[in-house]
Every structure is written in C-alpha cells, then in structure tokens.
Amino acid sequence: MSKNTDELFKNVIAHAKEYGFVFPSSEIYDGLSAVYDYGQFGAELKNNIKTYWWKSMVQMHDNIVGIDSAIFMHPKIWKASGHVDGFSDPMIDNKDSNKRYRADQLLEDRIAKLDEEGKTSEAEELQVEMDNALKAENLPRLRELIIEQNIKCPISGTTNWTEVRQFNLMFSTRVGAIADESDTIYLRPETAQGIFVNYLNVQKSGRMKIPFGIAQIGKAFRNEVIARQFIIRMREFEQMEMQYFVRPGTQAQWFDKWKETRLKWHPALGTDAAKYRYHEHTKLAHYADAAYDIEFEFPFGFKEVEGIHSRTDFDLSQHQQFSGKKMQYFDPEIDPATEKPYGNYIPYVIETSIGLDRMFLLTMINAYREEDLSTDEKQDSRTVLRLHPCLAPVKAAVFPLIKKDGLPEKAREIMDSLKLDFNLQYEEKDAIGKRYRRQDAIGTPFCITVDHQTLEDNTVTIRHRDSMKQERVAADQLDKIIGDLVSWKNLLK
Ligand code: ATP
Hints:
Blueprint: H1 3-18, E1 22-24, E2 36-38, H2 40-59, E3 64-67, H3 75-80, H4 83-86, E4 88-93, E5 100-102, H5 103-116, H6 120-135, H7 139-148, E6 165-168, E7 172-175, E8 183-186, H8 192-196, H9 199-205, E9 212-221, E10 236-246, H10 251-265, E11 276-280, E12 290-298, E13 301-312, H11 314-323, E14 329-335, E15 340-345, E16 348-355, H12 356-367, E17 368-372, E18 381-385, E19 396-400, H13 407-418, E20 424-426, H14 432-442, E21 446-450, H15 452-457, E22 459-464, E23 470-474, H16 478-486, H17 489-492
Parallel strand pairs: 3-9, 19-20, 19-21
Antiparallel strand pairs: 1-2, 4-5, 4-6, 7-8, 9-10, 10-16, 11-12, 12-13, 13-16, 14-15, 17-18, 21-22, 22-23
Helix pairs in contact: 2-12, 5-6, 5-7, 6-7
Domain Aminoacyl-transfer RNA synthetases class-II family profile: 140-389
Subcellular location: Cytoplasm
Binding site for ATP: 222-224, 232-237, 304-305, 355-358
C-alpha cells in the first residue's frame, strides 16, 4: 500500500469514528477483536444500503420475494449443508510466538511478494502448487510449501511451525437450560441455509413458479482467525443474499445473467466502474459448479465484496436426504423436447451474496474527499462525504441564522413539515460556515437556512453539498426539491 492510499484508508477509519459511523465494539473495555458497532449515522447509511439492495432485488423483480429467517436453526442443517465437516480454514501456529495464521494466506502473501519482486514465474508456480494442495486438502503439503518458501512468522521471525490443521469457523452455543440435555447449536455462518429450508414454504404459500428467487438480509457469524482491515473481515457481519431457483440445465444461463446484473448494480451508486472486476474461483466450494467474485479496488488492493455462485442442487438435495422431506418442485410447463411437462425435480440454485459491511466500507471510501477550497485571500479546506443522496444518513439540515428574533421557531416549523418525509437535523450552534462543514462531513446533501427574510416572505436559502452553491427558494418548495434528489427512483430506474 503506498503512503497516500494507506493514509487515505486511515483517514476514512478515523472519520468514521469521529463522525459517528463506525465504533470499535466494547471500546471502553479496549474493544473486541474483529467486532464493530455502527453509530448514529452509520446505522442510517447501512439501512439505506439495505433499502437500495432490497428494493432493487425484491421490489423490482416480481418473481423475487424476501424473508427474514432466524439466526438459530436446527443443528442438522449445518451437517446437511457440509459446514460441520467442511467449513474450515487451514491454520498453522508459530511455536515461538504462539500466533496462529491461515496457511493459505501466508502463501498468498508470499505469492504477492514474489510478484512485486518481478519473479512472476516463481509466483505462478507457487500459486499452482498451493491451489493443488488446497483442492486435494493436502495439509502436510501446505506446510511443506511454507517451509520450502522459508516463510517466517512476522512476530517471532522464526520458521518454527506446527502442523497445518483445519479450524472450523462456526461459533457454537447451547440451547436449553439443563447442561446435559442441551443441544449444541450454531450461529449461522451464512444466511443462505435459512432460505433453503424455507424454500418450499415460500414456494407453496406464495405460489411461486420457477424461476423464482428468495432474498434475505441478516447477520452471519464466522470465527475468522485473522481479522484484518477494519470491517472487511469481521466475526459478526451482515449479508444480503438472494437464492434463485431454476430448472436443472438452465443454471449456466442464469449464472451469467446474475453475474452481469449484479456487477451493473454497483456503479449506479456513483462508484467508478473501473474499480470493479470479476475474479473466477479456481477452488470451488463443495456445493458449487461455478463461482465468480465481484471485487472492488480498496486502497489496500482488490477485495471480494460479492460472490455469485452456482450452487447446483446440492443444498436442497442434502436437506431432502437429511430431513427425509421431499424438496421437489412440480413444473407443469411443457418441455418442447418431450412435449410432456417437466414434472418433478429438485431445482438448481444461483446465489448472489454480498457483504453489507464491505459494501458500507466501499461506499465510505468512495464518498470521502478532502477538498482544498483555498482562494487568494484565505486558506480553506473541507472533508466531505459525497454520498449518493439516496444513501445520505441525513437528507437536509435546518439552521436558524441566529438564535433569536423568532428564527429558531420558524426553522422548527419548517423542520416539522419536512420530517414526515425525510431524516433531518436541526442545528443552531456555531457560525453557519461551521455548521456547513459538519454536515459536509456526514454527507448531508442540503443545508437550509432560515433568516429574517424568511419571516417576511417564507423563502429560505438552500445550500448544495457538492457544488456549495446557494439559492433562495420558497419554503413550500423544499419537499419537492429534496424529494426529487433523494428519491429511490433515481437509483432504481
Ligand atoms: P473471503 O474469501 O473474503 O473470506 P468468502 O468467499 O468466505 O469471503 P462468502 O462466503 O462468499 O465469502 O460470503 C459472501 C460475502 O459475505 C462476501 O463476498 C463478503 O462480502 C461477505 N463476508 C464474508 N465473510 C465476511 C467477514 N468475515 N466479514 C465481513 N464480510 C464478510
């Protein structure tokens, strides 16, 4: 990471804390590693991102519906899904520092270093060796590669490594009051299974016809061993997932469609399309027959924000087997090849899964600007979040010019008429310039100032965040001016 991008990232993290977007969790107890809390503006921004996703996935598709399933689920679900046996990372410990690392990430870092040093063929060779070892789940080979590459623990500086072991990422807890009789259950590591086990309930109660989708937003939990890069890798995070159920044999075509649709969704928020790329998985998860990530170029490099996976009929078949309940769908449509109905089958599934927290960070980084506003007369600057107006936590701030002469009362009256539609802030402290800066820092698109003239003709000044231009408008026009800019229509069309 160059100094500039490193500094930019640090500044965004500091800004997120200073202005009430993201706080380290349990901060007064020195924090809890890889867990974060969203503050007053962070919660608003996060909700707005969720709304955008939900509206574009559910509201804009008449064959996609949304659910909200519980975090706790029957423990057999995680047996069936393969997570109890297979949801693990290969870990290695350094015996001198007692620090634990992901074996594959140590090798990935090494590959990146070789690349940096221009040793491209060595890097490629190591990549292939590592991929093969991961595919074959050959843990001793992963260790050998670490030793061969002379990879040292960054803390102890030694190569005194343990064996490589698989470490399950699921958190478990117990339900029921009596310890002996209680059952181990897991905190879900993905929201997807809540959709699969409800697929028939939704299909029947909603009379859904294939192809159809079920969407859900919710928390997921993973005991990530290496927590890095702020809210990129957390132990408690939120996913926005959609599972699309299709006729067997059509999955490749739907996979391509969702891959494209999801990539197009991102730049609508004003992010530079050039900062996105696809990454094709070489090592497929146990359930997938194709998988692409959508990656975004963060200041520290490209990172996955969303996964598009062709999950075959793996999950539904497994649940049919483990639960003993039929997961079949009856398709009455006529197959042109046989001129008979397609009949009973277990649908195939295309999944789109986006990390809300990574989306949040991407949005913050993309919006964050340090702007020099100096003129010949004076030095000046501002920090502004150029958030898409639909996403802005506060849509407008209302200021009385001064705290007397009935201006606060008039400002409150205007505020009361607008707050039915928009999230607003009222501010009367400090000079107007300072109030503008505070609103710029949280990304508020409009500041409305009430002055003495307002009392005479019911006009106000409205100041635009991005252009910083001010204009005088009738107060009764405000709901239209604000409404036009922050309308979801702007994004969804
Ligand atoms: P990674 O390879 O980065 O660990 P993954 O491939 O395990 O991610 P998926 O299981 O495909 O991730 O989950 C879908 C999305 O959930 C990811 O694209 C990411 O945005 C988000 N996500 C996954 N793990 C985390 C985490 N620990 N913290 C925050 N977001 C996460």
